[in-house]
Amino acid sequence: MVPGLPLPPEIQLAQRLAGNEQVTRDRALRKLRKYIMARSQRATGGFTPVELLKIWKGLFYCLWMQDKPLQQEELGRTISQLIHAFQTTEAQHLFLRAFWQTMIREWVGIDRLRLDKFYLLMRLVLRESLTTVKTHGWEERQIEQLMELLTTEVLNPDSQAPNGVKSHFLEIFLEELTKVGAAELTADQNLQFIDHFCQIAAHTKDSLVLHKITRCILETIVEQAPLAIEDIMNELDTQSGKSEASDGGESEVSDGGESEASDGGESEALDGGEESSEDEQDLQDTPPKSLHAGSVQRADPEADKEQVLDDEDSTGPVLQFDYEAIANRLFKLASGESTPSQNRKRLYKVIQKLRDLAGGTFPDDDVPEKAYKKLLEGRRERKKKRKKRLSTPQPQNEKGESETEASSSDLSPGMKRKRSRRNEKTGQRGPPGKRRKPGARAKGAGVQQPARKKKRPLQSEK
């Protein structure tokens, strides 16, 4: 670069985005959004892939420098929503491609403490990329282009993506697709979303990718089948309830308009008096609850937390799938000659479960029982190992100590004191009541041998 010339605006913004001061970074982020909107509106002179890589490097270190958790989440949302500043689909896809390339390049340098906020950034960017497809009405061409971009940049062996990026992407894909489009997507559109994963699972040689696709995509669809059926039943119930309510309202309006207007006041007054008297009688009949002195009746916080979690899990629609169509597509891919045997075996198991679902049976009903049996077998094996350890013979000195403790427990306190004094004098460690010869005692207790060597010359002098 020639000295004296000003730097390109992308490099200037990237330097400010990675600055030390938060005020500088926030100001640079606002300027970047305006710059993207102004430049993407031009007919010519859009962003190049190299320029977007420079911008994403600045955005990467902008999040790197943010340490506070709440501000990290807010910054991640702001960065992920920059995709909506681009006016064309091609520019949006270039922006997404530069993001995944930046994450793959910089992933090795992310330390353990900063890993969570970049996981969050991946989730938010994926959510906003699916939102862009939603704004176009879930067009087939838009879905195909987005899935081609994601699978090429993340799951393709040529991209050399780290295992952490692959695993997290596959773990969060169905979750984010459910949040964005579960209420609108049809079964055919959902099949189009997962078709690329089926193709990769049939031909990949990466065991991690095969395991994550089957576990986080295909088997998750099988596990969510009862929820999907329950969602359909709830929709049918709401539709039938609305139709019944509309029919009932029309009949009530046509039959009794004038009679309600004339007799409404008197009947409401009489009914109100009767209800109040009945409520007072019920309050008198119900016995008061007995509480201990000083006790306050409070709700169980753990029960409240469980109820909140259950409500969160139960609320919201679930993705709908045609299980027979998924099974046929997987079978067509898995039965090919180029499919490895390991992939074919794994996919055939999933195909059987999907066909059972299409036939009206739930193959996962027996899974909890199997898991419980395995858990019980594991506990029994642990108990057997513990019993074997306890039943193994202990050393002789431990046996002698246990015998002395058992015999001494039966004696009176005075006898215990006398015996302890005698043991201190003689250095006896064996069971009480058994007198040993001095020579044998010396052999048994190796610690007392130096003292006896000093006593022997004293006995000879006497």
UniProtKB/TrEMBL annotation:
Entry's Gene Ontology BP terms: rRNA processing
Region named Disordered: 238-317, 356-462
Keywords carried by this UniProt record: Nucleus
Taxonomy, superkingdom: Eukaryota
Primary location class: nucleus
Biased composition (Basic residues): 381-390, 451-462
Biased composition (Acidic residues): 247-283
Protein's UniProt keywords contain Nucleus: yes
GO CC annotation terms, alphabetical: nucleus; preribosome, small subunit precursor
Localization, UniProt: Nucleus
Residue ranges, compositional bias (Basic and acidic residues): 299-308, 368-380
Cited Pfam families: Nop52
PANTHER family assigned to the protein according to its UniProt record, in alphabetical order: NNP-1 PROTEIN NOVEL NUCLEAR PROTEIN 1 NOP52 (PTHR13026), RIBOSOMAL RNA PROCESSING PROTEIN 1 HOMOLOG A (PTHR13026:SF1)
Family listed: Belongs to the RRP1 family.
Protein name (Swiss-Prot/TrEMBL): Ribosomal RNA processing protein 1 homolog A
Native source species: Myodes glareolus (Bank vole)
